[in-house]
Amino acid sequence: MKKKITIVDYGSGNLLSAKQSLLRAANLINIDANIQISNSPKSLKDSSHVVLPGQGAFKTCMDGIQKIPGMQDQLNEFVKIKKRPFFGICVGMQLLADTSEENGIHKGFGWIKGKIKKLPSTKIKMPHMGWNKIKIVNNNAHIKPKETDYYFVHSYYFECINKKDVVAETEYGINFASIINKENVYGCQFHPEKSSTQGLNIIKDFISL
Amino acid sequence: MLKKRIIPCLDVKDGRVVKGINFIDLVDAGDPVEQAKFYSENGADEICFLDISASLEERDTMLSVLKKTSEEVFIPLTVGGGVKSIKNIKDSLMAGADKVSINSAAIKNPDIIKNASDHFGSQCVVVAIDVKKIGSSWMVHSHGGTINTNIEALSWLEKTQKLGAGEILLTSMDRDGTKLGFDLELLVEANKILDIPLIASGGIGTIEHFYEGAKIGQADALLAASVFHFNEISILEVKEFLKKNNIDVRI
């Protein structure tokens, strides 16, 4: 069956990069996919996969979603009722948490239990920007990332309440969750679309779901 | 462990890669998309395009270069040169750039740094600073290093950081094109002020210079152009040398 992969456009992130990487990944594994960038909640109805990128501040991203009438409901339906594969990238992953402490306390989707907190910045530069290694802590997820370097840009991290939701961790001042997964919901703190071959491999695994 | 980044910089004019020695004497060195792809496959951690075009038509050519590059290259892509407005930044980001570097426009109107980071997030705002040592101070120069702004470089660094710069690209004009190595004193002084990542540029001639910039200058990323373009040094050679000398890099 032809897949329909939707990248949610809510005014955040480098959507073109996400699209190019999905096109390349689909091409590499011969998956026939219609990959689109859309700001319409309707387009989620017949999507097989949804990707949520995100850059900038948590609240700005959350507001961007809320501003589109019906988007939050369609996202909930896609993930909670239809249980189809969903992938959040960077702030797109952080939005899955219950709350964020970035510039005040803000509510997230609450799909994966946890809180977004600031990375401790004593003696290290912020944002955490550049290539850093991941360590797999849970082998049960359907995506099978290589334990190597990926490209990160962030100052906040996802503190998961349930350790079993953490697939991989990365060290920068502290150990934090760099890949999370719960059922059909996946999230990466780094940018797989900017992480060379190893990043494309994660995208391949996701679209193969 | 966060890795030190190696960034090849490609000067692009009207859709073609060129490299000036001390910003003059242009020598054509090829197609930017192919070059970016080559570097990405050979260990570059990011790619930087510097648009040295003069006309608006050529700027549109740059946007199409960005778009084509983003189809082929899956590592971060920075573009700089002649960025004047929020619209310029948006156009570049929409065309596939991940970061935009601002130089003269920020000197003319520092608020563009704040506006850009408020609009698009500080992660995509690189402030490029060209400095020349005059007496005992480093002074900021604008317009490709041709005009002394009479702004003291270290105070400018502090200000741009406060305004929301995500990263600083610091070029020593005294060293650029000389192959004498980085101005290490400048990097050390800059790092005393900066809490955000520092990209060092200007002066690389040997593989040891990369090591000095990372180890002594404590730069987070090292940017070079001509030594890579003319195949004098390969990125892999640099990384192997750094690794052997206990500097963490991505190989």
What is the topology?
The complex is a heterodimer of chains A (209) and B (251).
Chain A: E1 3-8, H1 15-28, E2 33-38, E3 49-52, H2 58-66, H3 71-81, E4 86-89, H4 91-94, E5 99-100, E6 106-107, E7 114-118, E8 128-133, E9 135-136, E10 149-154, E11 156-160, E12 166-172, E13 174-182, E14 185-188, H5 196-208
Parallel strand pairs in A: 1-2, 1-3, 3-4, 4-14, 5-7
Antiparallel strand pairs in A: 5-6, 7-11, 8-10, 9-12, 12-13, 13-14
Helix pairs in contact in A: 1-5
Chain B: E1 5-13, E2 16-21, E3 24-28, H1 32-41, E4 47-51, H2 56-72, E5 77-80, H3 86-94, E6 99-102, H4 104-108, H5 111-120, E7 125-134, E8 137-142, E9 147-152, H6 153-163, E10 167-172, H7 184-193, E11 198-201, H8 207-215, E12 221-224, H9 226-229, H10 235-244
Parallel strand pairs in B: 1-4, 1-12, 4-5, 5-6, 6-7, 7-10, 10-11, 11-12
Antiparallel strand pairs in B: 1-2, 2-3, 7-8, 8-9
Helix pairs in contact in B: 1-2, 8-10
If you had to describe this structure to a student in words, what would you say it looks like?
Helices cover 24% and strands 33% of the residues of chain A. Chain A is α/β, with parallel strands linked by helices. Chain A has one domain (3-208): Class I glutamine amidotransferase (GATase) domain (Rossmann fold, 3-Layer(aba) Sandwich), CATH 3.40.50.880. In chain A, the strands form 3 sheets. Chain A has an 8-stranded mixed beta sheet. Chain A has a 4-stranded mixed beta sheet with strand order 6-5-7-11, covered by helices on one side. In chain A, a hairpin with a 2-residue loop joins strand 13 (174-182) and strand 14 (185-188). In chain A, helix 1 packs across helix 5. Chain A starts with a strand and ends with a helix. Chain B is of the alpha/beta class and 251 residues long. Chain B has an 8-stranded parallel beta barrel, surrounded by 8 helices.
